[in-house]
Amino acid sequence: MNGADTAWVLICAGLVLFMTPGLALFYGGMVPVRNVLTMMMQNIIPLGIISVTWVLVGYTLAFSNGGNSVVGEFDAFALLDLDTPQFHTVAAGVTIPTLAFVAYQMMFAVITPALLTGATAGRLRFGGWVFFLAAFSILVYPQVARWLWHPKGWLFQLGAQDWAGGMVVHASAGAAAVAVLLVVGRRRGWPNLRNSPNNLPLMLVGGGILWFGWFGFNAGDGLQANDIAAQALINTHVAGSAAMLSWLLVERITTGHCTLVGAVSGAVAGLATITPCAGYVGTGAALLIGLIAGCVCVLAVRLKSVLRYDDALDVIAVHFVGGVLGSFLLGFFADSTVNAASDDGIFSGGGGTLLWHQTVAIVSVVVFSFVLSWLCAVVISRTVGLKEPGSEQEDLDHVQQDSSAYSLSGIGARPTAAGRAAVDGGAGGADRHSAPSHLISAVVNTGRVDGLRDALLMAGARSLELSDTAVYSGKIRTDTFRSEKRLIDFDERFRVHAAVDSEHEEAVVAVLKRFGAEPESIYRVAITPY
């Protein structure tokens, strides 16, 4: 056993695992505020389900030493009888524990179907999603992994190459996303939805975790701590950086803005595109691949408007197109001087043989994943159900979890203390039982809820109501998400209703003005009790 290689693979397994909660943060920040927990739950639950299915049957179907070129046998069922696995993409002499390989490959199996949840955001029923995860992790992923990553796999023997999952992970997940979208359909109200992302800084944190974890995703796939691992790591970073810049350049030319969402999306597109190439190309090739990825994937975002499919978070444009593009570009840029286990691409004098093999592999993986995923989605949809009813899609956190990620009220977001008014009864000791004669209504702009409450009660208010409101400002400002512009001319404020008697009316109005109420927003209405 090689201690350095073993330590490196175990570390990389942890990095790839870390990508799954990173994906939850990445997607969670881009969905509407009432669907955050549901989105995150859909991304976290694969850690539980697929870890179990992988140990029971997934690993043996993918990497069993028995079996044939299409599917493995059950000789390693539940990891009860493990032989030394037959490794892929690396030179002979890899000496790491079998369980280290099992754990590392498990993390790839976990994150693959989680990727497609960004496409179906706002629609999936949790129970149906659980069944789909189990089905995909048994019927689809292990077979594709065997075809490309096991020496007996028919695509491996054909000569197709996939360093770390351009086809096994991204293309198969993207094809599955298309299949599930066909079954669950569009969100209620699409394409006229106006649900803004709830927390783009959260998205940035998730994107950063994905980038960090991608070093383990790509640099660990050779299963050795050597020069190829270093090359794969630098290629990963360079491609992500280049794709970020080219995405932003296209975004600037086409929309006039460079956005945070565009920067992170471009980086992820570059990381997905370099994944099948990372251990087979040089640094210069990785730079070019990243630049191409950013341009192609940002333009692919517009496909959903042309083809009218509701890919909520552009999984198809980023992961599917990126994975397929990288697998195809490997036929041009692969270089055996970087990795002797690789064939040469067109630009390295290898002719078009590798490109043909890559094309056959891409088509085979996409068709297989699409057909099996569609069949699974149809069966699940007609039995346990896969899509939430349209009326429940706008508040899935409440429907599925009976909770919320944030306090949805600006008032509730400002916890109140036991103020002076709560102690002495307010209104300066005035008779609390005298009937109010008027209702004073005003719009205020303040975060000092405690101070406002106490001041109004001390001024003589008999009862108070405070609610969130949106006030027409007359000034239009632009909000942009995924190149879609939203024109906003409302500002968030508080609406105050205070019941008062004639004696304390002027004092209450003075308090409201002191807390930012515009005179034209203050109204006085006579109270007529029933």
UniProtKB/TrEMBL annotation:
The chain crosses the membrane at residues 6-31, 43-62, 90-114, 126-144, 164-185, 197-216, 228-250, 257-274, 280-301, 313-334, 354-380. PANTHER family: AMMONIUM TRANSPORTER MEP2. Residues 7-406 form the Ammonium transporter AmtB-like domain. It is found in: Cell membrane; Membrane. It comes from Arthrobacter zhaoxinii. Gene3D superfamilies: Ammonium transporter AmtB like domains. Its main location: membrane. It comes from the Bacteria. It holds the Pfam family Ammonium_transp. InterPro entries: Ammonium/urea_transptr, Ammonium_transpt, Ammonium_transpt_CS, NH4_transpt_AmtB-like_dom. This is Ammonium transporter. It is a multi-pass membrane protein.
